Amino acid sequence: MKISRREMLKVSAGAGAALMLNEWPAFAQERPLIMRSIPSTGEQIPALGLGSARTLNVGPPSPMWVPLSNVVRLFHEMGGRFFDTAPSYGTSEQVAGQMVQELEIENDLFFATKISTGGGRQAGLDQQEGSLRYWGRDVIDLNQVHNLRDVDIHLRTIRQAKEEGRTRYVGVTTSFDQQYEQMEQVLRSEELDFVQVNYSLGERTAADRLIPLAQDRGIAVIINEPYNVGRLFAVTSGRELPDWAAEFECESWGQFFLKYILGHPAVTAVIPATSDPEHLVDNMGGGRGRLPDEQTRRRMEDLFDQWA
Q: What's the number of CA atoms in the CB half-sphere (13 Å) around residue 152?
């Protein structure tokens, strides 16, 4: 059954009422989420995850929490598992931790967080303990050195936690092209389970060296900023999806951008963030159904580049 973006968003409109009944669009059941394997272990995770930078950085409980909690709940109910956060995202990690515990799903999710501090080893240890406390967890699924800050120090901390059974996977992240040279050195010299980089139709540099290198080294690849901080939507605003997007079951520009990324064979997961339940429903469609092949991905690049 085909459903348009308009119909999809209509189904999820008034999300508060529908979600209070634990309902979610039936069409999603017809196309399961794409699964990808973590190279270092073979464990499979859904390829469409959820980020939390900016979106969950809110103050004390307020009416704002209702749509945010609905986003988290709907993500889980639609099969999402990979949830990425960080202590440096303001209150995001703490807010998410409270929400997942209220929903009683904290142990269902693949909990990915970060150490993000230039304050030395103890500061990193404190962040690690805070992450466990906020989420009510005994084990972090993936802990990452955020933006390579004090990378040598914090990798030792995360590896020690892995040896103690308090962290399952070790990773590093960046969202900045200017760190790519350093990131390449880290990928070549360190034994890692995951790397997280910025990559999208509008920001493709990571595909030149970092993503292929990670693939060669057997490192799982997480993609952040899949919408290039909103730039992709600005470029395509007012434009119709090309007819050939239907060939890979794409029903919106958001899905177009996500499926472009997931069409790369080395990508393990992509983590779009949203505070809107309707957008969450649309995003989840980007992790289902057919994906563009390499020739189609080149066609997607050419189309975007004409307008950018």
A: 3
Collapsed DSSP state (helix, strand, coil) of residue 145:
strand
Cα–Cα distance for residue pair 251/259, rounded to 1 Å: 11
52, 68, 172, 272 from 134: Cα distances, Å:
14, 17, 21, 22
pLDDT per position as a tens digit, 214-224? 999 999 999 99
- Locate 152 and state its tokens: 């040598």
Distance CA 142, CA 198 (A): 18
What is the CATH architecture of 44-238+266-290?
Alpha-Beta Barrel (3.20)
Cβ(156)–Cβ(141) below 8 Å: no
Is the Cβ–Cβ distance between 233 and 276 less than 8 Å?
no
Q: Phi first, then psi: give them for residue 170, nearest 5 degrees.
A: -115, 135
What are the tens digits of pLDDT across the range 62-77?
777 899 999 999 999 9
Q: Determine the Cα–Cα distance for residues 153 and 161; give it in Å rounded to an integer.
A: 13
**Pairing mode of beta strands 110-115, 82-84:** parallel
Q: Is the pTM of this model over 0.85?
A: yes
Residue 268 in contact with residue 211, Cβ under 8 Å?
no
